[in-house]
Amino acid sequence: MQPILKVDLSTGRTEEYKIPEEWERAFLGGASLAARLLYPYLTKELDPFSPEAPLLFINGPLTGTSGPTVGRFVVCGKSPATMQWAESHCGGFWGPELRFAGYDGLWIT
What we know:
Blueprint: E1 4-8, E2 13-17, H1 21-26, H2 30-38, E3 55-59, E4 73-78, E5 85-90, H3 94-100, E6 105-108
Parallel strand pairs: 1-6
Antiparallel strand pairs: 1-2, 3-4, 3-6, 4-5
């Protein structure tokens, strides 16, 4: 699994986050990996519009491979409407291009 690029928009800094090896086997990617990454941050007190609220774009396990519907990725965060978990599944060229750039996800704060 390729690293996730963490981008802090407040400071303009970026860093690569390597997924722990045991997570690679337990969470194939997409929504399950995003849930594991976001769980510690989705507290009741977290304002979904605050700079600390993460927004994750995570590729599925087959994103960028050859075949039908393999351009899928998921966007996850805390919903301002429900104040709970929110996810949206997307397709197109963005997910594969992220993978071809060397990343399996983008973490924005």
